[in-house]
Amino acid sequence: MSLPITCHNDLFGTLGQIEPTHLAEIAQQGYKSVINNRPDGEGGPSQPSNAVIQAEAERLGLNYAYLPVVPSAISHAQVTEMARLLKTMPGPVLAFCRSGARSTNLYHLALQECK
After folding, report:
1. pTM to 2 decimal places
2. pLDDT, tens digit, for every residue of 15-26?
3. Secondary structure element (H or E) that encloses residue 96, with its range
4. What is the C-alpha separation between 81 and 54, in angstroms, rounded?
5. Fold (topology level) of 8-114
């Protein structure tokens, strides 16, 4: 079963919460970098930790960044960091959070930052 990635363009996609086992398919789909926008523990004990996801991403040769944001409290510093990551990480880049919505919002804010 294919992951329901929302492809915003050839260089960026978003997805809801991933499991470490999803990273192999993410890499197979051509993504080179992954950004985690979900704070650890937000979804309770069943949510995989950032460290576990990062370890598997790096094992598979993916670039990885942890930029946790709270949906109603995205700061200018987080937008600036997302813009920097989008400029510097090898693409295509996949960002994820609980549903993909905050990663999408952060992406659009970062695009405005780049203008």
Report:
1. 0.95
2. 999 999 999 999
3. strand 93-96
4. 18
5. Protein-Tyrosine Phosphatase; Chain A (3.90.190)
